Description:
The protein is an all-alpha fold. It has two helices and no strands.
Amino acid sequence: xxxxxxxxxxxxxxxxxxxxxxxxxxxxxxxxxxxxxxxxxxxxxxxxxxxxxxxxxxxxxxxxxxxxxx
Length: 70
C-alpha cells in the first residue's frame, strides 16, 4: 500500500512539474488568457455546485412519501 502511495505522489509531482514548465514557457498574453479561462471555469463550477447543493437541501427538507402508512 505504501508503494502505491509513493507512486501516486511521484506521478502527481511529475505532472505538477510538467505543468509548471509548460506555464513558464507561455507568453504573458497566453498566461493571461489561461488565467481568465480558468477563472471562468471555476466560476461555472462554483455556480453548478451551489445549484446542486440547493437541490439536495430541498430534497432533504421534503418529507419522504415513499413509506406507506399501514
